[in-house]
Amino acid sequence: MSDPALVFDSVGKSFGSYEAVKGISFALERHELVSLLGPSGCGKTTTLRLVAGLEMPTRGRILLDGADVSTLSASQRDIAMVFQSYALFPHMNVVDNVAYGLIAQRTGKREAHERARAQLELVGLAGYEKRLPSEISGGQQQRVAVARALVLEPAVLLFDEPLSNLDAKLRRQVREDIRDLQQRLGLTVLYVTHDQSEAMAISDRVIIMKAGRIEQSGPPSSLYNEPASAFVADFMGDANVIEATTIAGPDGQSRVVLDGLPLGTELPAGMTVDVMLRPEHLRITDAAREAIGGTIRRASYLGAQCEYRVETSLGPLLLIEQGAQRLRSEGESIAITIDPHHARIIERERDG
Amino acid sequence: MFWLVVAAAASVLPWYAVAPANAASSGLLLALGGSVAVLPVYAVLLALAGIGVGGGGGGRAAQRLAALASFAGAVWILVSSGLQGTPYDPALALTLSNQPAVGWGAGLTVVALLGLGATALARAGMMDGDRFGAHLLVLVCAILALFVLFPLAQILEAVSRPDETGSVLAGLAGRLGGREIWGLTCLVDGGRCGMVWNSVGLGTAVGLSATLLGLGASLFIVRTNAPMRGPLRLVTLLPLVTPPFVVGLALILLFGRSGSVTLFMYDVFDIRPSRWIYGPQGVWLAQTLGLTPLAFMVIHATLVSVSPSVEEAAQTLRAGRWYTFRTVTLPLIRPGLANAFLLCFIESLADLGNPLILGGGFRVLASGIYFKIVGAQADLGEAAGLGLILLAISLTVFLLQTVWLRGASFVTVTGKGDGGKFGELAPSLKLLVGGVTLIWGVLIVTVYGTVIAGSFAQIWGRDYSFTLTHYLDAFDVISGPHGLVWSGGAWNFFFTTMWIAAVAAPLTAALGLLTAYLIARRRFVGRGVFEFAAMMSFAMPGTVIGLAYVLSFNAPPIEITGTAVILIVAFISRNMPIGVRVGLAQFSQIDPSLDEASTTLGARPGMTLRRVLYPLMKPAVATAVIYAFVSSVTTLSQVIFLVSPRYDWATTYIIGLVENTNYGRAIAYSVVLIVLLIVIVALLQLILTRTEFRRVNTKSTGETQ
Ligand SMILES: Nc1ncnc2c1ncn2[C@@H]1O[C@H](COP(=O)(O)OP(=O)(O)OP(=O)(O)O)[C@@H](O)[C@H]1O
Ligand SMILES: [Mg+2]
Question: Looking at the DSSP assignment, which residues form a beta bridge with residue A9?
Answer without folding.
Answer: A61
